[in-house]
Amino acid sequence: MSMDNEIRDGEVATDWSGETDAGLVFIGRIYTPWSELGSCPRAGRADGPLCRIEMFDPWLPALAGIADGAMLEVFYWLHRSRRDLLLQCPRNDGVTRGTFSLRSPIRPNPIGTSIVRLEGRDGASLLVRGLDCLDGTPLIDLKPDRSEFIPMALPKPGDFQVGGTRS
C-alpha cells in the first residue's frame, strides 16, 4: 500500500466505532530503515538489513536466556495501519478478498509478526534481521520461534471439543 489511507477499487470499509475490549502494553520500540508504507517490504528476510529493537527498561530482565543467533518471533503493533477494511484488493490486482483471508497489515487489530535472528545485543538494544515494519513501530512481545519446540504428543481423535461436543 503506497498511501496511509488509500482505498483501492473493490475495497469495502466499515464505519465501526465501538469500544475496545483489551489494552496492550508496549514493551519497546522497533527501529528500521523504512519510514513510509510504500518502501516497507511485504515480508521480512533473513538477509534483510540490520534493525534494532529497543526494549523499555522495566522489561530488560525478561531477556535473560536469549542468546545471540536465537530465532525469535517478534509481535508488533502496526500503528499506522487502517483498521476498518472488510474487503481488500492486494496490489490493486482487481481480486477482492476478505481481510481475514489475507496477511495484510490492514485488520481490526493490526498485529504484525516476524521471525528474526538475533545478531547481537547492546544493553537494551537487540540487533536483528528479518523485520518488515516501519521505523518507530511499537513492540508488543518477543517469543522463541515456535519451530524450536516439539509438541509433547500429537493429538488423538476426540481430544478436542467444539461447542461442548467431541469432534
Beta strands, count:
11
Overall tally of structural domains: 1
Overall average residue pLDDT: 83
Shape: globular
CATH topology: Elongation Factor Tu (Ef-tu), domain 3
DSSP strand content:
25-35%
Number of helices: 0
User: Structural class of the helix and strand makeup?
Assistant: mainly beta
| Rg value | 19 Å
The CATH superfamily is identified as YaeB-like
How would a textbook summarize the main sheet?
6 strands, antiparallel, barrel
| CA-CA gap between termini | 41 Å
- Gross CATH architecture: Beta Barrel
Strand order, main sheet: write it out.
2-3-8-7-4-9
Structural write-up:
With 167 residues, this protein is mainly beta. It is 0% helix and 32% strand. It has strands spanning 12-13, 28-31, 51-55, 71-77, 85-88, 97-98, 111-122, 125-129, 137-144, 161-162, 165-166. The chain has a six-stranded antiparallel beta barrel with strand order 2-3-8-7-4-9. Strand 5 and strand 6 (97-98) form a beta hairpin. The model has no long low-confidence stretch (mean pLDDT 83).
